[in-house]
Amino acid sequence: MSYLHVLNGDATLTLFRQSDLPGEIVVCREMMCEGKVKYTDDMAAFFETRSKHLEYHYGIDRQTYFANVVKELERLKTASDYEEVVLWFEFDLFCQINLLFILHYLRTQVIRLPKISLVSIDSHPEVTDFRGLGLLMPYHFPALFEQRIYLEAADMELAARAWKAYCQGDPLTLETISRGPTGHLIYLGPALQAHLQRLPSVENGLNAIQAYFLRKIYMSDLRWYDLYAQFWDDMRIYGFGDFQLDIYIQRMRRAGMIEQHDVMLSITSLGREVLNNEEKYTDYVSLEHRWLGGLRLMHNPWRWDAKTGTVVRVEE
């Protein structure tokens, strides 16, 4: 058998190579859960739009993006040369949205798809604080490989629906998918629920991550790295790294919600008022270029209602 393994990020790459599993490796270095994405089968247009957005709003150099990210992903076009594509993606939002993209890429760019299998776990008996495959040892991978699950046509169709809804900014469809059966994509539902909680809340405009940060530093000032460590313990469903959490902190600082002195973070009086639902975060932060997939947050009518655990539409 000839295999093409697709890994989500470089954290697993060295360990995976040491496992001696046969096959070629493609590394997905994207973060499709962050920023604007366009719904199209034209990958050249997709990456061009994506690169401009990431460069302008996230400081990711366009040339570096094409060299390190796009060029690697384009190797997926050779998938028909293999008997099986094995996808190694974890349970969290970061991985699950990347997984939807990879399945979209394979479905639209490869003429003859081979068998597609998936290794996706949210825990491991030998890792007490499991957060991802990068915490495993090389000898763990062969056993996981033997336990892989083969995706069926229904799984591919569901992934296509979810990716389309994500790119088109359709939270109601995503909510419906998250509450229904997801076949062999067993972690998709919880990940989509976590995504929807990134919408501004109906109470104060904070999303789940912003509210978490404010609540933590409301109780006491914290060093940023201690705050991140607590976030990774309590909200591992997101799978975010330092880069994404830094963006959250910087935006909240600019909005006047928190202050930073050296490594120490503290809440401001405005931050307390927002947390107590006396002010709205969205009144103090620019949403003009903020996107959740294909949903532009500026003038967006969709909110998350934590009391009902649902997406609701509000009139500005």
TrEMBL record:
InterPro entries: DUF1835. Residues 6-113 form the DUF1835 domain. It comes from the Bacteria. It holds the Pfam family DUF1835. This is DUF1835 domain-containing protein.
